[in-house]
Write a structure and sequence with these properties.
This protein has 172 residues and is mainly alpha-helical. The protein is built from 11 helices and 2 strands; from the N terminus they run αααααααβααβαα. It has 2 domains: 82 residues, no CATH class; 86 residues, His-Me finger endonuclease fold (3-Layer(aba) Sandwich), CATH 3.40.1800. The protein has a two-stranded antiparallel ribbon. The chain is elongated. Bound molecules: zinc ion (2 copies).
């Protein structure tokens, strides 16, 4: 039996044991025992900070090879948790970059998008999903001079006509 199979077996036994002894476990969880456990758990955490950090960082990777089924479930919940924050993060990024269309001043977030001042959006779009979570997070982390906010109208007009009608009006 390989190491991985052994670990998996152990986990299964552990789950089974917990299930079979659930009443006993429940009875042993007195308030005093809980308080005691809290103290020892805290002490252990404090003295194993580095170890915990390392363990957590590699958790997803390990799970992927050791238990693909469980990894799938883990990945789905982690992703759901992350994407639940999407509207909030997007709004924060919009506010951080001026909160309105740099051309016409439109400020309805649903009409707004991030625009690369010098073009080159395609390259970035290939690397990370444009407007995706990682992109928004990176915008918040470091303020970028080459990114501005445009509304969809002003953005598309630039693509179609090379210039936004708003700009032409200003030049008249
Ligand atoms: Zn606009
Ligand atoms: Zn415009």
């Amino acid at each position: 039996m390989s190491e991985e199979e052994k670990k998996k077996k152990l986990r299964e036994y552990n789950t089974l044991w917990k299930y079979e002894n659930r009443e006993r476990i429940k009875a042993s969880r007195t308030p005093e025992a809980k308080a005691r456990h809290k103290v020892t758990a805290k002490l252990w955490k404090e003295s194993n900070k580095e170890h915990i950090k390392e363990y957590n960082a590699g958790y997803g990777k390990r799970l992927r090879t050791e238990d693909p089924e469980r990894y799938k479930r883990y990945y789905t919940t982690q992703n759901a948790k992350r994407y639940a924050r999407y509207p909030e993060v997007r709004l924060a990024a919009i506010v951080a970059y001026g909160g309105e269309c740099a051309c016409c001043g439109e400020d309805e977030p649903k009409f707004l998008a991030f625009d690369h001042k010098n073009g080159g959006g395609n390259k970035e779009r290939k690397k990370a999903s444009y407007g995706g979570m990682s992109f928004l997070e990176s915008l918040l982390k470091t303020k970028r001079e080459d990114i501005r906010i445009l509304c969809h109208n002003c953005n598309l007009a630039r693509g179609f006509y090379g210039q936004c009608p708003h700009e032409l009006k200003d030049n008249e």
